[in-house]
């Protein structure tokens, strides 16, 4: 198995990369064809496709057919968790036609899109208009539906929150075939707040209206090296975007974009960005870096140069900045192709990068997939900002994974308690980054092979993930569900609040039609009997069992 993984680059070079290029090209052609149609025509096709979904749901025989799932193949999802729930008997609904941008309304500053629209597709349309989604996830392949039903973050989330916080309305097909529009202030407001993190288990999302913001042509990016221990790095990261006087809503004091990459236990680079006009960027003496060119140094390695040459500033075209981590998949590309960062590979073959994640999954097989789960870490830890230093020390002690990615986000205090929620009474402490209406959290991205694995030592990946999950529960943190999870059902509902979710499951008749969110996220194969038993148990229990973590 070690040899198969070590020489997996052969499969990637000769199979995955060519297929990825053909796949990306075919999707691009489809997107261009869609963009040639008028918004009116796209809306008409959308309405017809919604009717097909409604008919498909109404044709389902609840006593004979399995629970409803999308017809998308398990390996197509970008997330790393096993999509084993589809191995049980299920009733497929095809959502593949829902990949169109339905409208860009620059007067209302709203984009109406279907769930399979990805970040690369929408930024290609909006950025030339000098508007953008408020939160644009870095990887091109991430879809609107995945970012809403699951989890989505970007360097602007310290201002706008998670991706789902920027949504204005959802168009959802419920279990009985009813099509509803949910907003925060209409009769379906409970559904509006319950959809994020629900993994599509309350209904089928068929479109969403999302907030747009005005932007400029370039991003003025400042790279600031930090040397010190992990607590000092954490404080420098906090100071890079959180005014010490608590004036977090003052846009003059808070940058438009923030991220930090921690390269070793003593070295990091903090990056802050502000939108800049073309005229400013092209002034004499300013450096413009087109990071999107295929032959360019991978972004995380380019940022690392600040540790040697000191603080510097450059201007990056806005769309290229948005997708700066796409070509190298953050730093996972180094594991997939050990020589992928070399100048000769970038120059001659960089245009074919990145390999499509779904094709990597499709060609790895179950044994290699399990090998990665045990010897490799892809996890995000969402923790209160004031605990980021503790989180960094925990990762260093238990996993030794570097680089680490830090990205802040607001966690709003909402009218209803959702699956993820801020700490009770956070506003009383007036901590750096917090406001009266939102607590500042941070994503600690842990993506790479752990230090013990790289040194040839023993590492128990499953036990490490369990420890990570326990630490998150104890510290009011959250684990995005795209990742491999070892949570038991009891601990799942200790981490997440299930009251609103379960109420909506009952109210909108999702029980018996859609799988529960825990069961959908649960690791391992699901038999038909397990699915039925789990749904029956859910139907009998009013709310999930919740153990409050110790104070």
UniProtKB/TrEMBL annotation:
GO terms under biological process: steroid metabolic process
Gene Ontology CC terms: cytoplasm; membrane
Cellular compartments annotated: Membrane
Acidic residues composition bias: residue spans: 533-551
Classification via Gene3D superfamilies: 3.30.465.10
Region (Disordered): 522-551
Keyword Oxidoreductase applies: yes
Topology in the lipid bilayer: Single-pass membrane protein
Key words of the record: Membrane, Oxidoreductase, Transmembrane, Transmembrane helix
Enzyme superclass (EC): oxidoreductase
Positions in coiled-coil regions: none
Known EC number: 1.3.1.72
One MF annotation (Gene Ontology) recorded for this entry: FAD binding
Database matches in PROSITE patterns: FAD_PCMH (PS51387)
Transmembrane segments: 7-29
UniProt keyword Oxidoreductase, yes or no: yes
Domain FAD-binding PCMH-type: 32-215
Name listed for the protein in its UniProt record: Delta(24)-sterol reductase
